[in-house]
Smr domain-containing protein (Miscanthus lutarioriparius), 818 residues
Amino acid sequence: MALVSTATVASSSYHCDLLLFPGARRSWRGPRWSRGGAGARLPVLPRAGGGLAVLERAGSTAAVSRREELVPAGNGRSSYEVESLIDRLSNLPPRGSIARCLETARHRLTLQDFAAVYREFSRRGDWQRSLRLFKYMQRQSWCRPDEHIHAIVIGVLGRQGPALLDKCLEVFHDLPAESRTALSYTSLIAAYARNALHEEARALLDQMKAAGVAPTAATYNTVLAACARATDPPVPFDMLLGLFAEMRHDASPPTHGVMEAHTRVGATAEAVAVLRQMQADGCAPTAATYRVLLDLYGRQGRFDGVRELFREMRTAVPADTATYNVLFRVYGDGGFFKEVVELFHDMLETGLEPDMVTCENVMAACGRGGLHKDAREVLEYMTREAMVPTADAYTGLVEALGHAAMYEEAYVAFNMMTEIGSLPTLETYNALAFAYARGGLFQEAEAIFSRMSNNAGIQKNKDSFDALIEAYCQGAQLDDAVKAYMDMRKSKFNPDERSLEGVLNAYCIAGVIDESKEQFEELQSSVTVPSIIAYCMMLSLYARNDRWSDAYDLLEEMKTNRASSTHQVIASLIKGEYDDSSNWQMVEYALKNSTMEGCDYSLRFFNALLDVLWWFGQKGRAARVLDQAVKFGLFPELYRDTKLVWSLDVHRMSVGGALVAVSVWLNKLYDRLVEDEDLPQLASVVVLFSISRRGEMEKSTITRGLPPAKVVYSFLNDTLSSSFHFPKWNKGRIICLKSQLKKPQSAVDSSNGSPAAGFVPMMNSHLPSPGSKIYTREDQLENGTGHLPDEPLVEEKESASRIVSSQELLCCPSHLQL
């Protein structure tokens, strides 16, 4: 094994501008970036001081420097694209083509990037180019303006004097009535207020309230400022007092600002105390008030508090779409994926209309949770409501399908995006690549990244390299896995815990102890506590090499870990200390918690745990853990039975996990034989899945030598006396024909009813004492695997004569087609 070591916009007097150009807020999960499409979301830009005041104070600074303040730091591609577009539009003649200016950047600019362009034109007072660009965007599906863009353009036009107020109204009315919130109304009110038209501003405020849109404090402040500055004639003071009284009644009261200040520093008790004080003083909290606290509880992981507060809110004030959007994000980030779907249906039943943010959040939760059926239903809802799914929405669908090993369906969804004008983003490519990676489909992962860079012009990020590392590890291309890790480092990406675990997995699979220990130590120095996945990898490595003293030292370290009770529970599980019903509930709780991290983490967690339990001889406990994984919806492809085929699919499992699954499956097969069920034409174990080049890998004899295939093949034939074989037409499956299945059935029939648990005794062995030789004895070749014969044990003629007809296979699910 040739593995190498890796250790080497406006005046500050108008408060509307604070809504359009908010100051940076810190997000515990980080902003989600969208590459356009209808309803794309705009992350908050990190900017000192907020608004265009930064640009106005730096009036003598060069234009390039000003433009750099308009784009997010650390995103060189976006900064370059924005500057280039500004330059091209600035040099465009009056009758020049805007479409031609955007040809090279089409689908690569986000709505946030366009917002930066408008802010620069606003600074220059160039309303003509702003309006032309806006009209172009209206005609495009990939960059259709959302409310934020409408509000910015209204602000740009409103600064040019009363002559352009009609155009402000046109832009405002272009926004569908159901999409108008306080943001767009306040922007239009500010345009009239800025031109000293306080009566019109007040009339718009009344119109806003009549439309059912609640004014904010910024809305009232804008009107109050306009009225206070009126001189010909001046606005009576009692009218100003009346307007202020309306603000106290309708808008969020000043005690609201105090609540937000507490939430920014995580002071939950103080924020709740403000809410209770508001209620005691007769200031009825609004939906916005509750949203602040719901978000705070969610960021702190206090989901019981979220539920209680939401119940209280529903008795006090109707929940709106924005409130549900907060709940979707909070529950999705917290791992309550099914609860997000239930809330979505609850929202529809209340009569509220989901917006694009709603659908994106629900699709994201479905993606992380592997809820592909629910994701499809949300997509169907969007289609019925004439909503154009964004790239973020489709990414959730691709991710959900990938978690279910539905590769072809994920690829179809991926291609469908282009047809509707929502081009795949970097996140979409990564989601598809990770789907391939979990199944060891490294050729497909390579191909998708090649398409990404060559056709879309998008470069890999750290997550892309993580996907490649996982694909190579699962596909037993271990040298390539380490090379991908080194390429990540050369590309100036800092590896995180996921990256370090990926290369540790490569070393552990290869069985190189020194390099694995070195990598584990690097992981220990990088994080507070290595994950259970990393511990299990090392424990499996030590067990397979009969390094039991090292294994028990590491197990004790894991058990005495005071920073994580889950580490303690899993260590006790491995040692066999939690088998009774009360303690097993703690195990089930720990296993359940792993699923709240999403399917991506859960699959790696259960694979690592099943692997260590197998090599530690804990077959009974491993079977119980596998049963829990299946109940959680993981490995949905594992068992597929029809009248024609009994199938087991272990292509996404670790070696130990695959052996656990094969053992359980063989015992189920035993039960069927005992019950004298009708035998299928074929029993099949899928050890490798390939969709590229018409299954080239599945037809290669090299497949039979890969560790998972080799170990599973040996185990099957050691158990059932050479009943299984690799057919010549597909080396990714190990099959047993009906004629061969009759042999173990005859053996079962001849047992005369003598008691037997199955073909494989699923008992828990005593842990080996230090110095024991279990897997490294001379009679054990390559960690316990037997010799793989050069030729199939059953003649191909018999296989051909007994094989299921192609017409019959058309009735089988795609996972079972041979």
Remarks:
- Residues 528-740 form a domain with the Ribosomal Protein S8; Chain: A, domain 1 fold (CATH 3.30.1370.110).
- Strands lie at 639-641, 645-649, 682-686, 733-737.
- The radius of gyration is 31 Å.
